[in-house]
Amino acid sequence: MNKTETQHEEIRIIIIGASRSGKSTAANVLLGKNIFQVSADTRQRSHMTCQFGMTKTEHGYVKVLDTPDLQAPKLREESKVREEIQKWKTMCPDAHLILLAIRCDSHDLDADVMRFNKFRRLWGDNLRRRLVVLFTFGDKLQKDIDELLARSHPTLQDIMDCAGHRYVIFDSSLGASKQDGRVHQVFNFVSELRHGFNVLIIGKSKSGKSNLGNYLLNTTAFSVSRGPTSSTTHTVTRSAEIDGVAITVTDTPDLRNLGIVKTSTEEEIKKWYAFHPDIILLAIRCDVCYSAEEHQMYQQIKKVLGEKYFTSILIVAFTFGDRLGKNIDEELKTVCSELKDVLKEAGHRYIVFSNEDPVQDRKKQFMRLRAFAFNEGAPFECNESRSESTIPIKPTVQGASETLHGDMLQVCQGSKTMCDYDDRFMNNLSNTSLPVLDVLFHTINS
User: How far apart (Å, rounded) are the C-alpha atoms in residues 200 and 198?
Assistant: First the structure.
């Protein structure tokens, strides 16, 4: 995160989890000071009310809300839980990050999962763009974290899916420099979730994946092969900032070109979690038939990444749209049943890339792509005649209501939220040396 950028910003973080999960200790680590009281006596009752600490750090003004256990006796009634969560939203409006604390040595993952599912059901607002799993008591981790995730409660994977597989491990036994590294990782997540989005592009060789990546970054970041062989032989990630929006694009190889056994292919796919994609673009050519080979690859990726996670952020990207013989809606009526199934699983979200559409439309449609990423599956609508004001938007905080006087640990009323739409985007796009590509967003009436 840019230090000068955040000097006067307020960063708001909520920590949730079970009693004795290390929430207060983690809050103190993030604030850089012992503001929250932490008891070494495991028999002592954890705090029963939410409280926040605030201080100025190198990352800016940081406000951390420490919350009670949602499985506490006083919160057994759902109405009470709803009131409690609403209180958190008032005290920490439009939180930039929600840290779910889970002990590395947890002996009751069932309860952890139930607690999270209760929170997820009642929180609502765009949880994917806020959630990070915070594994605490890292010194008690007996095995590698990947082994922990592989052998643990089956539905813990669902939590990781919701968090975009973002996680950090806090370990009190670490030296100062390593501990600082973990703290920086948390604030890097804040920056990533506030100011940018990640796109993962998948598909077979020669499907236009690299061209698609170059379009999204507005530069020739990825090598494009003009011959019969693929130029993408391994996963490549490139980033750019366009009008204040950080964009990270990961171009993946055709799995058939890896030249490795099935288990290694699955390991390669699992590595894609680390890119924390907000959107997965499946590149399919408009000018050739969708093949059984492509569908087999699609099914394999879906199985390894998990169908619920994969399809929730999937968009089909039809490339070479300038070669379409007729209207895309008419074309899709005659495609094979396998492709129709893919579109259905993607929620009928698809885009068509063409080299003949005007730049202004490109700007509008890209903003819709960004809106989809920031709104966690907001309705992916496309009505060519609709105004920009109808594009889904991300709620942001209008100013900060608190006046800081040193470190704070108290309860206060937060500022109200409003919708803020940023219409600045790619004004310099017309100067690009790339072929003119447009992104047209469509939905199909199911």
Answer: 7
Which token pair is 265? 């292919």
Q: Tell me if 342 sits within 8 A of 315, measured CB to CB.
A: no
What local confidence, expressed as pLDDT, does residue 423 receive? 34
Instruction: Copy the structure tokens of residue 431.
Output: 């100067």
The β-bridge partners of 202 are 282
Q: Which residue has the tokens 């990533």?
A: 192
Which residue(s) pair with 167 in the sheet? 133
Residue with tokens 């009693």: 19
The predicted model scores a pTM of 0.72
Residues 358-401 pLDDT 10s: 677 667 777 778 888 887 555 555 433 333 333 332 332 222 33
